[in-house]
Amino acid sequence: MKSKQMKLQTILNRLQKLHPKEIDLSLDRVKNLCKKLGDPQKKLKYISVVGTNGKYSTIQVVRSILKTANIDCNIYTSPHIQKINERFIFNDEEISDDNLSKLLIEVENVNNGEQITYFEILTAAYFYHASKFKDKINIIESGLFHRFDATNIIDTNLSSIVTSIGLDHLDWLPKNEKNIEKIVYEKTSSLLNSSIVVSKQSSDETLNLIKKTINNNQSKKIIYKDDFNYSLSENGFIYYEDEYGGLKLPKPNLLGNFQIDNCATAIATVRNLQLGVKDENIKEGITRIKSIARLQEIKSGKLKNICKDNRLYLDGSHNPLGAKALNEYLNTLDCKKHLILGMMSNKDHEEYLSKFNNISSITTIDIPNQPNAIKGIDLKKKLNKYTNVSYKKSIEEALISVNPEKDDLIMITGSLYLAGELLNLN
């Protein structure tokens, strides 16, 4: 097993050296490679998912509902949390180390040393392998800004999902365009002509910008509040409604009311696709969602043992919009909360933390194995206006130092990369 993982890692290391930059916004290289591979992306059925937050959760809800209706999907997401295989789901199965190695070597040989970014060659490999499962629906998560994302080389799709949009990846935008208008434009101006499902947004301003940008797109538009809606009842049920009628639903097995927004968006998409999914499939599907590092409670393992009886949570949120949603959830809990925080260098650290209130302690840490992460000690200095901030080198040291009282909660957050390291550690 170890040797297969090492072989795969050796291939991945080679692929990372094919371009001097991690990201180089252009579609030419991935189009050229796909052409050499026979343009596999042209022969497939797609649901495209764009946005800032909620993409992964929405995809997992769609996947779970379709699986319950015996419709297995291919799925392409990024980044991965624990291992790269997570990005490649074919016929509802994660690709094995062996098959991924074979696939990447084949695509690498066809690429023949041409300059191409790591994400671009992985995307081409996904399309190439997905073409062997032609009858399956491909759920594709678009990274960064969509318009120049390597996934944006498909010609037709079944539907585009627009999840919550907010400020993130600002370092990739020109100085005078680091704003929500530019991000909405990049994410939604080149959506294909099919149907567009727009999730609940954090503000009317963002929603109106999306409506304006997609105004000339000929797609059927299905917009939260205008075309689908939900309400929560006191006894825990969700009442969902759209043009196809109302549904009384159990609460999904995801924490946080913001996740119900993602569920509603997924349900609106599935119902509009008219794939023969029954109401029962939706009801069962939302109770079987598999989600990691999104408001996930760690109930056992090495790190949980350090916390003893205190609740330990993990959330990969890493931008202000994600912090706001996480804080809203934390404010529903009547206990003291302790944050352990590790972040990447290119994030808006002060703005992220400003979204939290009623936090008893903040401990900054280094994210292991991530050269692009901000050092925990530097993060602490940036947050020095908070009186309750301390720094510890490792996750274990941070957990020991928190010293929580009975019923206190510990939340580890700030980065999906940190989430992956934590889960591997645990």
Give an account of the 3D structure.
There is one protein chain. With 426 residues, the protein is an alpha/beta fold. The protein has two domains: 2-285, 3-Layer(aba) Sandwich (UDP-N-acetylmuramoyl-L-alanine:D-glutamate ligase), CATH 3.40.1190.10; 296-425, Protein-Tyrosine Phosphatase, Chain A, CATH 3.90.190.20. The protein has helices spanning 2-15, 28-36, 55-68, 97-111, 118-130, 180-188, 204-213, 258-273, 279-285, 302-307, 320-330, 349-354, 376-382, 395-402, 416-425; strands at residues 45-50, 73-76, 88-90, 93-94, 137-141, 159-162, 195-198, 220-223, 228-232, 238-242, 245-249, 296-297, 311-315, 337-341, 361-364, 389-391, 409-413. The strands form three sheets. Strands 4-3-2-5-1-6-7-8 form an eight-stranded mixed beta sheet, with helices on both faces. Helix 13 (376-382) links the parallel strand 15 (361-364) and strand 16 (389-391). Helix 4 (97-111) crosses helix 5 (118-130). The longest helix is centred in the middle third of the chain and has 16 residues, at 258-273. The relative contact order is 0.12.
Topology:
Layout: H1 2-15, H2 28-36, E1 45-50, H3 55-68, E2 73-76, E3 88-90, E4 93-94, H4 97-111, H5 118-130, E5 137-141, E6 159-162, H6 180-188, E7 195-198, H7 204-213, E8 220-223, E9 228-232, E10 238-242, E11 245-249, H8 258-273, H9 279-285, E12 296-297, H10 302-307, E13 311-315, H11 320-330, E14 337-341, H12 349-354, E15 361-364, H13 376-382, E16 389-391, H14 395-402, E17 409-413, H15 416-425
Parallel strand pairs: 1-5, 1-6, 2-5, 6-7, 7-8, 13-17, 14-15, 14-17, 15-16
Antiparallel strand pairs: 2-3, 3-4, 9-10, 10-11, 12-13
Helix pairs in contact: 1-4, 2-5, 3-8, 3-9, 4-5, 6-7
